[in-house]
Amino acid sequence: MLTERQQQLLKAIVEEFIKTAEPVGSKTLVERYGLDYSSATIRNEMNYLEQQGLLEKTHTSSGRIPSTEGYRYYVENMLSGQLDENEKNQIANYYRNLPLDEVIQTSCDVLSNMTNLTSLVLGPDANRQTLAHIRLFPLDDTSAVAVFITDQGHTENKTFHFSESISVEDIQNCTAILNDRLCGTPINEIVEKMNEIKPILAHAVKRHEALFNAFMQAFVRFASDNVYYSGASNMLYQPEFADLEKMKELMKMLEDSSAWRTLESSGNALKIVAPEGNGELVWLNDMAVVSRHFNIGNEEGRLMVVGPSRMNYDRILSLLDFTTSFIENQYKRKK
Description:
The chain has 335 residues and is α+β, with helices and mostly antiparallel strands. Helix content is 46%, strand content 21%. The chain folds into three domains: 4-77, Winged helix-like DNA-binding domain superfamily/Winged helix DNA-binding domain (Arc Repressor Mutant, subunit A, Orthogonal Bundle), CATH 1.10.10.10; 85-125 and 226-334, Beta-Lactamase, CATH 3.30.450.40; 129-223, 2-Layer Sandwich (Enolase-like, domain 1), CATH 3.30.390.
């Protein structure tokens, strides 16, 4: 258990390091934080915090930086969880007159702009859903809208534009066959099963090739993880990612959306739940991922901010909490 003075010093060191990315020394703490302790007292307390594994000493300076455990203590015990009214109004202004289908993507953009970090939103995991029904609505001779519905109520719309005229009869026959053969199939197995029923379509549908290709493209898109990124280039300006190997590792993760769903199960990851359950944090090497779930009807999504372990957790958790609540309220209001 830390004393009040030790907590005060740890809080100051974490927040100073967040601002500067530089090791923090006793002189800095006295000058910038107006602490009423001598430099010798501060150094003794810093030594104690280091012995407890909450601070680390770098080789290039006599100052200290927070360890992962130090950040963990800070997140669990020292966050205010408050967002000022100006930032709340700024977020609300982004959504003014915004169409409902753009709310989630805009939320991702808002977070990356306000934090200067990378943000992403994960939609429902397609691998845990099965296809419940397909509906196809002809628009004219060469276009139609398909609606895919899963067992969890998730829907996906796709507009098809054909290079040749497709009859209503062909569309109806194709849809009937797909519903008969694919309903109940896990989303991630549909593409493989489509190849198995291609001969059946060829026998029953005149323009089967055009319809098969259109549906195949739609299912490939539907089966892929629903993920949107914003501000990926922001990481280039973080000193921790000046290391080329670290940046390569991050870029590889950004190319593989499934990695974000299994991040906390990594053997090197440290995960905690923030106070009052308003978010989760995962630390992996020098990278931190802060996330919060949101619910829209029967669907669950996850909004995330990715950055160096040296990030302003208090502000980011507050932004995520307010933004996800705003998403849920927007959908309730506009439905």
